Amino acid sequence: MIYPKRQIMASTVGPFRQFTQFLALLWVIVPSGNLLAEVPDYGAAAQQFIADNDYAAAEQTLNRRLETYPEDLQARFLRARVFAWSGQYDASLADYDFLRTREPGNLDYVLGAARALLWAGRSDDAAILLEYERLLWAENEEIWELELKALATTDNPDSRRFAEELLQQALDLFPNSTWVEGFPAYFDRSNRRYGLLTAGFTYESLSNDRGNRTETRLAGAYHFDTSKVLYAGLRRTDHFGNRDTEVSLGGYYPFGEKWTANLRASISPDATVLPTSSVAARLHRKLPGDWGFALGVRHSEYDKTTSNVAAVSIERYWRNYRFVYRLSGGKADQAEATLSHELRGDYYYQADSVVTLSIADGTESERFGQTELITTDVTTLSLFGLHRLHPDWSVFWKFAYIRQGELYDSKGVGIEFHYKF
What we know:
By secondary structure, the protein is α+β, with helices and mostly antiparallel strands. The protein is 32% helix and 43% strand. It has 10 helices and 14 strands.
């Protein structure tokens, strides 16, 4: 480290005074009180933490550096990337704004900010930023690629049409580039119109001679874009020796940028355990600061009774995690009111993969047939997730334990395959 030059004036006082002046000078030169504290290479340490996927430790290392040297652009650039990699997009963009005010022409800062905007789901903002830079850096392939991805993933139809025109220009400008040749397929996929087929099976073993429960599922969905989805499903259940078949239809539809509605209806005319018909609605609202709120209701009809359930939940996204608290209450004819609480945590990794731990406790009305309805205490512990095997294939897995009061304990496993086309 280089410090300002200082001069030590000769003193005519005694040796003790000179020694105290020397100690005071050391205190000024080394504010941390340890001359060796600044010797280690913070960059190497942060890079090692990044290599170990320990973004929190890398962030702390860079924070300490920037507290002392806020104008260290290299450290701030590295921290901006760490923020983006760990899902702290607002913090990353704030660092990129700082960097771009210091060096407006630095292309690395522009590309980093654009990636953070894309990962944050702000495709329109990324496209606006990159369009200007493309005019300045017309032969830079990375700008073209990022802008095309931004335009292809926006919800604006005009932007997607412009992406098709821009793609043709890129094909002419970069005829030998691999990313350009493969981009049409990416554009079709990123155009947010794709189908999804799923097939799954669940097995539960019940105590107290209650036998087993199984469920087989087939479903399909069509994604018009990120938030507009139409889906249908068919499932076959075997509960306590009663076999039911259910058909369902539902969809998601956004209202503006912050509201999304989910509607679902099902029918099982000859059901014994499942409802003969049901309808459910859920409304989700994005809140500032990576928070979210949802409210849902469900009405179910059985041969001899009806059931109504309402639920409210609040969620918080933090880095690669999502935490949810859900409170639900219900009332069925000829049964007591029920109330339950659920806490769940999601960890996101890779592109579309997630692991979830869920703990729920409360009361529930369990149906053993159309005429037998029992309210019991229920505790549930579930571990499940979705793992991306291939760009087109994923596998959903689940382990669950349920304690249904004094009636029985249930231990279950499930697997489901997803194919995207």
